[in-house]
Amino acid sequence: MSTARASPPNPSEIPISASPPAPVRVVRLSPNGDPVHGMSAWEAIAHEHVVAGDLPRQRRHRFYVGERRLPGQIRVGIWEATAYTERLVNYPKDEFMYVIEGSVTIVEEDGREETFGQGDSFFMPAGFTGLWRQDEAIKKYFMVFDAHDSGD
User: Fold this and answer.
1) Of 31, 54, 137, 138, which residue is 20 to 30 A from 39 by alpha carbon distance?
2) If pLDDT is split at 50, 70 and 90, which confidence band does 31 have?
3) What is the full DSSP assignment across 88-123?
């Protein structure tokens, strides 16, 4: 039997272990926003886009903001606003919406109107031009994908 000892490992050959990645978890969406802090106030919509009503008071909470692994970003949250009508021109993002409370009427450029109320869901593609007409307060869940953070 040989009594030779193994030589110590070369430090440059020892693998460096990074800390384990955070677990990927399912995200619960609450109609009140953050379970502790609720929703926070959000900046006003640009005055020149509001075509009827006062500037809306709006609040939101982001439940999820995706990492920028690919061009673009996904955000999931809740948003609420008081009544107003806004002109949307070349909408900058793809957005899925689910109405929790209230309603909104979308008016397309050719005059076609569609109203979405509590329990309805709809999708607004990037590039949409038309009116967002809200005759009452609304609360909605949203999932947005856009090429940059447009502020949702």
Assistant:
1) 54
2) confident
3) E-S-SSEEEEEEEESEEEEEETTS-EEEEETT-EEE
